[in-house]
Structures are given as C-alpha cells and as structure tokens.
Amino acid sequence: ISLGLVGSEMCIRDRSNRCDMNQEAVYQTLLRTTQDAYAGNAEMTGFTPFPDDIVRQAVTPFHSTCCDVFCEDKKLVSQKYPALQDAIRAASDAVHWRQTYKDTDIGDDFMDQFACYCIIGENAPFMSAAIRLFMVYMPPHFYYPWHHHPAEEMYLVVSGNGVFKRKDCPDERLTEDDTSFHQSNQPHAMETLDDPVLCLVAWRDDFETPPVLTPPSDMS
Length: 220
Known about the structure:
20% of the residues lie in helices and 30% in strands. By secondary structure, it is of the alpha+beta class.
C-alpha cells in the first residue's frame, strides 16, 4: 500500500483531556486493523480485493451525538476482531461522522443513535478509486428502515449481532464474522434486538449516489 501522508501530526485528547495517541498513529492503526480483518474474511475478499491504491488524505473531524452513543456502549465485545473494534473507537475524535439521512423525515432519534464514518472514501483519512469502506454501529433495540443505493455492498459483522433483511430474501440473524451482500438497488434493512452491532461495510461501483429510504410502494 502506498501511503502519501498529508497534514501535520497532532494529539487526540479524550474527554478527560488526556493525550491518548498521536493522530497519525490512530489513522494508521485504523487502516492496518481494517485491512487485517478484511483480508481474513473470504466473503469480503471475494466481494472485492482490499485495494492497493490507498492514499492518505486530509480529513476535517466532525462530531455527532451518535459518536458518544457508540463510544459509551459497553456491550460491544469482539472475539475475532478486538483490535479493529478498538481502532474504530480510538479514531472516533479524529473522523468525520456521517449524517447520511440529514434533512429527511427519518427523525432525530435515528440520527442521534445510528453511527457511521468513512474509513476509505470521501471525508475519510484514506482514499481509493476501487472501494468505499465504512464503519456502521447500531445500538440495541434499533431499527434501520428499508433503504437502497446503486453501489453493491457487503456487511461484515465485527461485534454484536443483528437481524439483516433483504427484499425477496429470508431475514438472517448475523453475528461476528458473518456477512451480508446487497445487490445494486436491492432494498435492505437492519434491526437489533437485545445487543448492539458493529460492522465493516464495503461498497463497490457507483460511489456517487448516496443511500435513500425505500418507498413502501417499492416493497410490495
């Protein structure tokens, strides 16, 4: 991987104002643990190989309430990917938290709890022409309604579990190391029960069109 480093090195301070890690080290640990988890799962590498054109890019951190919900969740425990889970959390103050459904009627409660930031892509510390890569977190008893997008998508469960729904497919209860593939524009939804879920999410093709909520008429 070729990493063109951009920007100065800084310290990330947690809420007790303690300097935890050098910012560049945080980003590089996030990339390394992401690659390790991705490369270790055959479904992910079969979906699309981990890219070899990654470059470092500047990112302006943006905080959202969902970040606090994610960071304060003590129920997330990963047996296979503890290093990745820790790296995703360690980067929480140094990333741009996404507001994918801002200005829709999805509601503030959803926006305050659904946590997502981009690891490789727009407003992310890294860029590639071949892939977009995100983290996605949902707390217990949470419903992510039906939505779709042109990009093909693969979810990898890092920790926790949830019910994954795809149009014209049976619901699946997925747990750590399981995957779910979404075809282009295939409506899909997710729901958590008593446990939260943390996922690594990959997109291939058509990165320009964001997700949109699927109208009920399209589900019949």
